[in-house]
Amino acid sequence: MESNNLTSVTEFILLGLSSQPELQVLLFVLFLMIYLMILLGNLLIVLLILRDSRLHTPMYFFLTNLSSAEICLTSCVFPQMLVHFFAERKSISYSCCVTQFYTFLAFGISECFILSVMAYDRYVAIRDPLRYLISMNWGVCRMLAAGSWLGGFTVSTVDTVVTFQLTFCQNNVINHFLCEMPVLLQLSCTDTSLAELVVQVFCIFTLFCPVTFIILSYAHIIIAVLRIRSSQGRRKAFSTCSSHLVVVTLFYGMVIFVYMKPQSLSSPEYNKIASMFYVAFTPTLNPLIYSLRNKEVKMALRKLLGKPETA
Q1: How far is CA 6 from CA 2, 49, 146, 190, 310, in A?
Q2: Nearest of 213, 182, 211, 113 to residue 153 by alpha carbon
Q3: Would you say 67 and 42 are in contact if contact means Cβ atoms under 8 Å apart?
């Protein structure tokens, strides 16, 4: 290794969001509040669904999986990021970087698949509401959820093996707040063409295929909704899908921006901002989107708080 002027990296330095000391306390307070909101919001969604029998339906079953994935996804990043706001040397060991890379990617890809399954669920519900609970029985729901999680961890395993077979030389400084694939590929001092090819192939499988499936599902949903004669029925059908569509647009838009653009066009600051969208922004908004726009969830919350339910 030394004859080729290569050294074995034992740790990486994460530059984080800002190098200005006067901003560290402010950023710590801000992201601590965001992390607590993510945890409390998503845990509340899971608790409400588990406690209220009226929410024991396929749609809320998948929402429980989505909230669980977001809790795990953010917990791969936030604790370390919060500690680094006060650390003089923002280092992460090689093994911890591998672990963060693997778990973050696994939960993120699982979330991609869960969102596409939720689109299929809404399509079945609107296409044939009378047979919905037969088509989406608990066996089917569990199989789709298990497939989403298994797919996420399988793809993450392959990506992790390919990425960390690369050689990382003397430069171990990562201009980011986590060990993410695009920045690690830029850091390698060996040929990354195979790794980039694997990334592109799996991005098509985990991003474009689900997005295409979601678009097709919503195209059929729109056709089915337009066939509903009453305007009230159309509004109700659209309201059940609008929350999911907002979440999908925010999440996939930023993930595609980070992972699918050419490495030559990558900018560390833009990557950090885009990553923050699916690490912090959408997990914070999801509980609000699904609760504030959902009458059943609000009724379950009132029941949990011991308040009388409103009609």
Answers
A1: 5, 53, 42, 10, 68
A2: 113
A3: yes
Q: Note the pLDDT of residue 4.
A: 44
* Spatial separation of the C-alpha atoms in residues 276 and 258, rounded to whole Å: 11
Question: Which two tokens mark 219?
Answer: 């195209």
| Cβ(149)–Cβ(73) below 8 Å | no
Q: What is the pLDDT of residues 227-263, one digit of tens each?
A: 767 776 667 666 666 766 777 777 777 777 777 766 5
Look-up of token digits 């990021």: 81
CB-based contacts of 70, cutoff 8 Å, min separation 6: 38, 42, 111, 282, 283, 286
Burial (0-12, 13-18, 19+ Cβ within 10 Å), 179: buried
Residue segments in the chain with a per-residue pLDDT below the cut of 50: 1-7, 311
Q: What angle do CA 223, 229, 231 make, to 5 degrees?
A: 95
Domain locations along the chain: 9-304
Strands 173-174 and 11-14: parallel
Q: What are phi and psi of 88, to 5 degrees?
A: -70, -40
In this prediction, residue 262 carries a pLDDT of 63
Q: Helical H runs in the chain? A: 21-51, 58-75, 78-84, 94-127, 132-135, 138-163, 181-187, 193-203, 209-226, 231-260, 268-276, 282-292, 295-304
Cα–Cα distance list, 83 to 19, 113, 156, 284 (Å):
14, 31, 26, 20
Cβ proximity of 287 and 42 under 8 Å: yes
3-state secondary structure 295-306: HHHHHHHHHHCC
- Rounded to 5 degrees, φ, ψ at 14 are -95, 120
Q: Does the domain made of 9-304 have the CATH classification 3.40.630.30?
A: no
Tell me how far apart the alpha carbons of residues 297 and 179 are, in angstroms, rounded to a whole number. 36
